[in-house]
């Protein structure tokens, strides 16, 4: 399961949170997709968002509920109310590119056990290619026939290099949560 934290937070803890492969205080815990924060169960009966797993530190948010999703209030020096929901970020493609693939790409589903993103006009996709173990930005899922961009990295976020007849380096960054 994947969750998304929103709010105007200082420091900025917003982002996607992904379930980790373990437990903390008897419950699953979550790590931010862009490293820096965790969501973990505190045995006093709260969910806590902090930079260090198991330690609230100076900047943290808490949810005094058994339910992971919902409202998190600031603690310590943190400011801003946070809301955790089920979901993903969109991603945004920028650059001077040919063909022009720039736009926001909402999370659309999973493909090869990874998220995939589709531009709103359904003309371009960002998807995980199991053959090359890389992210592909192309005009169809599982297609590298025409112009496309490639990122050889486990993270969808970052720089993509042009392949075939594509030109320009594409930058994929976190967009807005739908």
Q: Between the first and last Cα atoms, what is the distance in angstroms?
A: 17 Å
What integer value in Å does the Rg equal? Answer: 18 Å
- Oligomeric nature of the chains: single chain
- How many domains make up the 3D coordinates? 2
Q: Please list the strands of the largest sheet in the order they lie side by side.
A: 10-9-17-16-15-14-13-12-11
Low-confidence stretches: none
How many strand units? 17
Number of helices: 0
Mean pLDDT comes to 91
Main beta sheet strand tally, sense and closure: 9 strands, antiparallel
What string, H for helix and E for strand, traces the elements in order? Answer: EEEEEEEEEEEEEEEEE
β-sheet strand percentage: over 45%
Structural class: mainly beta
Helix content: under 10%
The geometry reads as: elongated
Draw up the topology in text.
Blueprint: E1 2-6, E2 15-24, E3 27-32, E4 38-42, E5 46-52, E6 55-63, E7 70-76, E8 82-86, E9 91-94, E10 103-105, E11 107-111, E12 114-118, E13 125-129, E14 134-138, E15 148-151, E16 158-163, E17 170-174
Antiparallel strand pairs: 1-2, 1-8, 2-3, 3-4, 4-5, 5-6, 6-7, 7-8, 9-10, 9-17, 11-12, 12-13, 13-14, 14-15, 15-16, 16-17
Please, could you describe this protein's structure?
This protein has 178 residues and is an all-beta fold. The chain has 2 domains: 2-86, no CATH class; 91-174, no CATH class. 0% of the residues lie in helices and 54% in strands. The chain contains no helices and 17 strands. The chain has a 9-stranded antiparallel beta sheet, with no helix packed on it. An 8-stranded antiparallel beta barrel has the order 1-2-3-4-5-6-7-8. The protein is elongated, with a radius of gyration of 18 Å. The model has no long low-confidence stretch (mean pLDDT 91).
């Amino acid at each position: 399961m994947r969750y998304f934290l929103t709010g105007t937070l200082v420091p900025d803890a917003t982002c996607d949170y992904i379930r980790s492969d373990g437990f903390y205080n008897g419950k699953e815990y979550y790590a931010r997709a862009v490293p820096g924060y965790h969501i973990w169960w505190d045995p006093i009966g709260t969910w806590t968002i902090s930079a260090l797993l198991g330690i609230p530190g100076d900047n943290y948010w808490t949810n005094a509920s058994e339910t992971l999703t919902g409202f998190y209030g600031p603690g310590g020096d943190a400011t801003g109310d946070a809301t955790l929901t089920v979901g993903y970020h969109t991603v945004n493609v920028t650059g001077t590119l040919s063909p022009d693939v720039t736009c926001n790409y909402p999370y659309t589903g999973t493909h090869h056990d990874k998220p995939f993103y589709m531009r709103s006009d359904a003309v371009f996709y960002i998807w995980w290619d199991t053959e090359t173990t890389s992210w592909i930005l192309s005009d169809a899922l599982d297609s590298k026939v025409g112009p496309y961009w490639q990122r050889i990295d486990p993270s969808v976020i970052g720089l993509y290099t042009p392949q075939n007849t594509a030109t320009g380096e594409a930058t994929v960054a976190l967009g807005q949560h739908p």
